Amino acid sequence: MITRTLWLLTFACAALVSLGCSDEMYAQEGVRGPANDAGLDAPTQDASGDAQHPDAVRTLEVRNPYGNVQAVDNLLIDGDFEFSDHQGQYGWLSFSSYGLQLETGGLCRSGSTCGRLTRNRRMLAYAVAAQNQPMALSLWVKPKNGDCAAVAVYAIGCISDDTPVFAEAKSAADQPGADGWCELTARMATVDEQPCLYLENASDDDVLIDDAVLETAPEARVLPPSARAQSPLPPKVPVARYSRIRKTAEQARRRRRF
């Protein structure tokens, strides 16, 4: 009889514990409530009968692990950093003692991986050229200080010893969007050698780099050569910066294996 009574008491205590574990503490309210899935709690009614919508407990994002797959004609080797790593680096080169720096997850703009360009550092990305056609460049940067001009971005020649500069990508706005990202864009004339992207962070903070796309210019797809806009002139580059660009291109040529 005593054994049966002890068994019933043990079962009752276990049931009470299991019921207590089904609750979740909400940091915003400081009270216990039932566990919910991601999203908003059901709206409550105030004294006037109006619905009150609480703050979101958590949010979910759906991302393609391969990045911006809509840019099917991207001429950059790895515009989203999804196939580059710290050691092999592949499509991107980072000229620092600790190699290519990457970020993952919700910090990035597309996909699950993006690049981190530390202050006073340089980065280079490999691309291929559209044959006998002008090109359009788009690249997104996220500066901590909100300065869309924090990173200098140039399209350069990867092969020639004189390292020609084809275009400079700039932001149309001084301040980033609500998500903190700035889009830098440029138009490139027809080139006769492999292009690369040169990035230089002259700010005091790290900057995230993501979703870089180099593709045939839209007008080149629908207009005959005689009706296309005049090719943009090469940008003017400060002497000290051009010296760094040439040095970076020379380092890249020494490091490449094919």
In words, what does this structure look like?
The protein is an alpha+beta fold and 258 residues long. The protein has helices at residues 2-20, 218-222, 239-255, and strands at residues 23-25, 32-34, 44-45, 51-52, 92-94, 101-104, 113-117, 122-126, 135-143, 151-157, 165-171, 182-188, 195-201, 207-216. A ten-stranded antiparallel β-sheet has the order 5-8-13-10-11-12-9-14-7-6. Strands 1-2 form a two-stranded antiparallel sheet. The longest helix has 19 residues, at 2-20. Residues 13-38 have low confidence and may be disordered.
Strand order in space, largest sheet = 5-8-13-10-11-12-9-14-7-6
Query: What's the total helix number?
Result: 3
Distance between the termini: 84 Å
Instruction: Profile the largest sheet.
Output: 10 strands, antiparallel
Portion in helices? 10-25%
Please tally the β strands and state the result.
14
Unreliable residue runs? 13-38
> What is the gyration radius calculated from CA atoms?
27 Å
Mean pLDDT: 79
Anisotropy-based shape: globular
DSSP strand content: 25-35%
Query: What class do helices, strands and sheet pairing give?
Result: alpha+beta
- Helix-strand topology string: HEEEEEEEEEEEEEEHH
